[in-house]
């Protein structure tokens, strides 16, 4: 099905967002892992996987509309130097992703591409209800508990040594 060129271009911009978020989460997850913050590693690694799934859905839609997915483009990564900055940077990027999704949803309505709009609404709900909510909650916990207590709570439990 030949899609609208404006919609395809907008989907490629969204694809850039998802791939950038995936890369940023990937790096942040590895940093958490290196620091022994196992719970944060697990969650942010999962978020990276979620972003990959979002990218996959966008690629499938672009291909269906007979467009060419741009999988090479990335926005600059904002890698944090510590946990609060990493969480803050991830949240700011999710805010950007959500706003861009809203704009492309409006474009899809204008161009009467309701199927693409429906796909994007699911991505927006996942971004707002899961990704943004969790990141906002973590920053709130740091404010309430203090950074040291928060970090200690995110170490998780490692397997006890045998013997």
Automatic annotation (TrEMBL):
Which residues are in the Ferritin-like diiron domain?
A: 1-146
Catalytic activity line of the entry: Fe(2+)(in) = Fe(2+)(out); 4 Fe(2+) + O2 + 4 H(+) = 4 Fe(3+) + 2 H2O
Check the record and name the SUPFAM superfamilies matching this protein: Ferritin-like
One Pfam match: Ferritin
Q: Which E.C. number(s) belong to this protein?
A: 1.16.3.1
Annotated keywords = Heme, Ion transport, Iron, Iron storage, Iron transport, Metal-binding, Oxidoreductase, Transport
A single GO molecular function term of this UniProt record: ferroxidase activity
Give the matching Gene3D superfamilies. Answer: 1.20.1260.10
Listed CDD domains: Bacterioferritin
Q: InterPro entries in the record, alphabetically?
A: Bacterioferritin, Ferritin-like, Ferritin-like_diiron, Ferritin-like_SF, Ferritin_DPS_dom
The function of this protein is: Iron-storage protein, whose ferroxidase center binds Fe(2+), oxidizes it using dioxygen to Fe(3+), and participates in the subsequent Fe(3+) oxide mineral core formation within the central cavity of the BFR protein shell.
Instruction: Name the NCBIfam families on file.
Output: bfr (TIGR00754)
**What family does the entry list?**
Belongs to the bacterioferritin family.
The record ties this protein, via PANTHER family, to: BACTERIOFERRITIN
**Record-given protein name:** Bacterioferritin
Which species is the source of this protein? Shewanella submarina
Identify the gene encoding this protein: bfr
């Amino acid at each position: 099905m030949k899609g609208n060129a404006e919609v395809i271009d907008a989907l490629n911009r969204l694809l850039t967002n998802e791939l950038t978020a995936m890369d940023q989460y990937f790096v942040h997850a590895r940093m958490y892992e290196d620091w022994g913050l196992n719970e944060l590693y697990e969650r942010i690694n999962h978020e990276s996987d979620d972003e990959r799934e979002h990218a996959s859905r966008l690629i499938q839609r672009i291909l269906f509309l007979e467009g060419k997915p741009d999988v090479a483009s990335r926005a600059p990564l904002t890698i944090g130097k510590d946990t609060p900055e990493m969480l803050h940077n991830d949240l700011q990027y999710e805010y950007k992703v959500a706003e861009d999704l809203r704009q492309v949803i409006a474009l899809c309505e204008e161009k009467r591409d309701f199927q693409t709009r429906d796909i994007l609404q699911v991505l927006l709900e996942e971004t707002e209800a899961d990704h943004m909510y969790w990141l906002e909650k973590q920053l709130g916990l740091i404010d309430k508990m203090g950074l040291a207590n928060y970090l200690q709570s995110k170490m998780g439990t490692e397997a006890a040594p045998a013997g």
